[in-house]
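mind reviewing this fold:
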Amino acid sequence: MTPKPSSKSSRKPVKAGARAAKTAQTKAARPAAKKAAPAPGKAAAKATTKTGAKAAAKKTAKPRAAVAKPKGKAGGKTSQKKAAASTGFAPQQERSQETHRKLMHAAIKVVSKQGLQSATIPKIAEAAGVSAANVYRRFEDKDALLRAAFLDMLEHSLRANREVLTAEKLEGIPFAQALPAMMAVMYSQNRQTQAARRALRQFLDQSADKAFQKQAANLIADSYMLLVDLLMVYRNEIQHPQPEKALRFAMMQAGTALETITLAGESVWERVLEMDEDAVLQEMLRGLAAYLMVR
């Protein structure tokens, strides 16, 4: 007789299999739930909420105070520029002007001592204490440098005469004394700048720059006219029918003679007249007084 299986033992395997199946389904469903994207409606709502919150926070946030940047090299340069502007010239401009003055002085010094042909840019640069490259940055060539230097010399001479020769200094002085004083000034200037004026005359003869020739001629003419204007205070003592015209001619005559005497290497005046320069000057004054018919 075959024994019947027990009901308890038959039910246990069924329950265990059901539980295992349920556990497997749950595990399989979990990663799928993790990988599944959120619903479009919920994602949009969440993004909108975050964006609105950020915008609201930005609007309500207090403005941040400006942070001062530390002054480094740039700050130092800016302060230097402001300080220089208050004085009228920037340091670089002051240095540039000083270099220009040195070059003008050095150019005249070199041409006076060594002559026009021997005055080279390296020599002038050395005399000025600057490099030749510095000179070429300012002037195209030697001629350009010498043009500037000669004009500077003439301008300086004119300024000096205007400061020294004034109408106030002639008050109370008779014309018979004022005329020799003017001649003495002309003679002294020609002697003091003899070599430089000789180089200038040579440079003017060789230069093809019409603008430079005109500028130089105007400055020289202004120097003569300064003397004429000063001596016009004695117009009533001049018997010439045209006092101003007579003074212009007299100054040009005297100036040309003095220039020839002082600038010529071998003065024909001295050879012909057999006089020294002082004696020539005295005779010239007598001739001018006679021409002007001074009373």
